[in-house]
């Protein structure tokens, strides 16, 4: 009889604890925050920045990096630009940690958390993106307050730590990470941005993709941006991008790599082996498969496609143009295109 009473008391205690756990949502969140803040994994790796004019393959390359065991793969465009998207943020050490966080915070995480992650507005499938912005801020501030003699790099490291620390369903093995990979279009077109980037990340790398303008323009035109509607204006922007690539490669040499978009499509493995060597990481077959958080994902294309993976049809977009448009593109871009290709990776 004594054993039975003891068993009954234990069972009642378990039921009481169970009911309390199922009711008390607030305490679960407190426990989650406490555990996360007690087990922060510092992210102080160099940044490999993918950047060039839009519709050139930056999204594809960032998706190929996803899932690699040695890469922290930022899933979306890196929107830390300030005061505008395409300006590398300048950090004033006299500002408060709160101000630093507000400058760097990427508002798109809120949308992805509430509606699921999508790459491109035409994408039908969304993926779970469990991200707590309030937790990110707490992690950022804890990192800052635990660092003596704050440098600008410390602020960026704290931000990256907070980003990946607040992304709760991110699938990664932190012990092997060597580099952060992230994509932001147009950021490397301005000289000041590139200089500011290397001031923060002297160990960083820039990866730029060059796409044949005859295939680039139809994609840019269909993407819906007003700035590419006029052929002449669009090609002037393409040329500006090409000339910036030439200058960046000539100035920073071994810290910059230029890849032909067409090579990435036709000969993915050879290109990704070259990129892996450039980033000093091991080659892994996951580099051949576009994914989000290790889930296969469709391309962020301006054209409808039922396909996952690499889409060879991107090499034939020029067929939608008229002979006159093709002639104009050739005459306006021929010289800068040749110059960029002379500095691109040769397979």
Descriptive account of the structure:
There is one protein chain. This protein is 48% helix and 9% strand. It is an alpha/beta fold and 347 residues long. Helix 10 (231-252) packs parallel to helix 13 (323-341).
Alpha-beta content class: alpha/beta
> Any idea of the CATH class?
Alpha Beta
Order of helices and strands: HHEHEHHHHEHEHHEHHEEH
The end-to-end distance, rounded to whole angstroms, is: 82 Å
Biggest sheet layout: 5 strands, parallel
Classify the beta-strand content into a percent band: 5-15%
What is the correct CATH architecture?
A: 3-Layer(aba) Sandwich
Number of strand elements: 7
> What is the count of structural domains?
1
The CATH topology turns out to be: Rossmann fold
Helical proportion?
A: 40-55%
Query: Reading side by side through the largest sheet, how are the strands ordered?
Result: 2-3-1-4-5
By DSSP (H or I, 4+ residues per run), the number of helices equals: 13
Give the full name of the CATH homologous superfamily: P-loop containing nucleotide triphosphate hydrolases
The outline comes out as globular
- Mean pLDDT across all residues, rounded? 91
Q: Report low-confidence residues grouped into runs of 5 or more.
A: none
* Rg value: 24 Å
